[in-house]
Amino acid sequence: MPxxxxxxxxxxxxxxxxxxxxxxATPRIDTMALAAGSVLDLDVQGDRAYIGSDFSGLAILDxxxxxxxxxxxx
Length: 74
Description:
Layout: E1 6-11, E2 15-20, E3 28-35, E4 39-45, E5 48-53, E6 57-62, E7 70-73
Antiparallel strand pairs: 1-2, 2-3, 4-5, 5-6, 6-7
């Protein structure tokens, strides 16, 4: 079951950011999930996030705990 209190945001300049949305009126950046410039696309399927970047290519993350993502490969 994915954590519903987080949103993963693709940021073209910084990479993927995990945002705590427990309180939607005051979202809070929790962690930088992947520091990779020019993130173009993000797809989350279950506990896996697939990230496409101009510079870094494809990265696959385990996001079962969005505050502590683990890079699985790329």
